[in-house]
User: Fold these one by one.
Assistant:
Number 1:
Amino acid sequence: MEFCDKCSSLLAPKKINGKVVMACPKCGAGKELSKGEQMQKQEIKQSDQESMVVIENPDELNTMPTKKMRCPKCAIVVDTQYWAVQTRSGDEAPTRFYRCMKCKHTWREYD
Ligand SMILES: [Zn+2]
Ligand SMILES: [Zn+2]
């Protein structure tokens, strides 16, 4: 499994001119890897993978930092878990998401 360096999305393999290119479906960033490199990278990435999966799956955010925030659903200040996601290109500020630990409602930060 390969993840985008920019937005941490799962890259999808594409074959272009006989070469396998790992391309990000979200931001378009691509990685060109030989088969040997792919194998190596996969092994190195293995340890990173767990933290990546955690970010991708809000239901497993047990080790994320917490913050007191007002939940729009509960309408009271609650403990929330929060994380940042790089939405579009790398030069844009990442969007911060909050998740109410009481009702599990998840929302994004509005400035
Ligand atoms: Zn990307
Ligand atoms: Zn809530």
Number 2:
Amino acid sequence: MNWFNIEKLDQQTYIISENQHWEEFNSYYLIGDQYNLLIDCGIGIYNIKKVLTKIDNKKTKLLITHMHWDHIGNMDKFKEVYLSQKANHYFKNGVEESIDSIRKKVIRDVDKELLPTDFNLEQFHLETSNRGIEIEEGNIFEMGNRKIEVVSAPGHTDDHLCFYDLSNDYLFAGDLLYKGPLYLNSDNINLKKYLYSLNKILKKYNDMKCILSSHYDPIINIDYLKDIYKFILKLKDEGKYQKGSGLHKKGEYKIYL
Ligand SMILES: [Zn+2]
């Protein structure tokens, strides 16, 4: 069963997508001289580790952007898990969303024939553990051939991190940005922090080659981020950058507030 779609971004960066799931989730596998990194680990219906070892079987450290269920389904398969202090709180104590609600989303619209033969929804769970390793803004993973910097980027959630590949100028954006309508209307989104994070990233990493997002079409041009940022500033000027203000459209861009 080819649940995972594997695309090579360059010789040492792989995009591992779960396009048969409605979340169209993308994890990123970064090959290093000394060790590999996996950024987020997907839905958890299938074991992502099996496809990683076929690509390169060096030791792999798992980096978590944030503790939403669709990013953390395979956490228990990795010995070393790195995440923000706030994300680690959820790793230790469990995420806020109920397991019943998560289980429904995990199998929503998934053709039963695509599920592994031994898949048991009642046994599907997210790991809770004290073994998380906390990281923060400015920490760097030295992989030998490349350096990956930790970027604190709250807004979508309070625990959200992005990761910046200093050697290739890629931003691994998590749910900071994705193509298609941008949903800024859910409860745990903090609009002020979100705007601050966009501004910080645009200023700090203006040599960015591309943005790699966790959902849908993985590769996003930096101009897309600049346009969204400008659109939000315009909404803010007009007093519309507020939850409950509804759908806003500008050209191809749609923002729900
Ligand atoms: Zn999320």
